[in-house]
Specification:
Blueprint (H helix, E strand, L loop, with lengths): L22 H10 L2 E6 L4 E2 L20 E7 L2 E7 L2 H11 L3 E2 L10 H19 L10 E4 L4 E4 L4 E2 L4 E10 L2 E7 L6 E2 L2 E4 L6 H13 L3 E12 L4 E10 L10 E8 H10 L3 E2 L5 H10 L4
Parallel strand pairs: 1-4, 9-14, 11-16
Antiparallel strand pairs: 2-5, 3-4, 6-7, 7-8, 9-10, 9-12, 10-15, 13-14
Enzyme class: hydrolase
Keywords: Hydrolase, Magnesium, Metal-binding, NAD
Cofactor: Mg(2+); Zn(2+)
Length: 294
Amino acid sequence: MKADQIHFIRTELDRCANMREQKQRIKQLKKFKTCHYVPVYRGNHIYPDSDEEFYVSPMPLGKPDNQSFLGILNDELWFGCGLTEKEAVALEIQLECQFESIRQYAMALNDDMAHIALYSRGLDLWQRQKNFCSKCGTRNHLESSGHKMVCENGHEQFPHIEPAVIVLVSKGDQCLLGRKHTWPPNVYSTLAGFVEAGESIEDAVHREIYEESNVRIKNVTYFGSQPWPFPSSLMLAFNAEAVSDDIRLDDEMEDVRWFHKDELIKWAKDGSIILSPRFTVANNLISHFLGKRI
């Protein structure tokens, strides 16, 4: 599995960032361009039973101030519409479907729709978390077509992204996988953690692996990245080689162990272990190591 096969990153959508402040231009384009409005509630979308795609309305939904311009795809405009609880319930009753997480439907979406779903989810969650200014406490309102918050005193805030590193550590035909206490039984994945303040990405890779496993690494190479708004991460994926193989757990991890390629393929196939879902960059890293999709 190559890095360019990471889910959620392939799209023809033009975000048109230069248009976000051009309210009149967007208003004019709405008059003669096809527009799509994606209802979002707490980062979730509606997936009708009869369709593999999430529900998209040809008409605006919710309050005009809660419409976020996502960009242009195939000469058509796309907007995310953040709904209130009342609006969300009314739409669920109308469509006889409930708002659900993209996790369950990610692999059923084509590249463009998967990207738009994740994009609209990230904006919606950020907007809901920033009702008030973090500097002065006054109420925020949306500007820049949903991509900026401005409070009563003019303080600006932009979507918050938390960088996290995720690493496939190998030693010959073995790779290092672990599981946290809170995960479902038998689930294993690559080791990962957030980049800390004042820390480089490279330092974060070495620190996280050592903290969670006691393993020292070398030859760290960049693999790719994946947007991960659950709620606001950006996953930065790496491969690395182990210098040592003596494992010691920290409090966060329930288990960390070395898996041989042959064992990993066999156990994943018979269900003895459960690996990260196919839409995750962790799965890409493991599949790349094994030389086959798993």
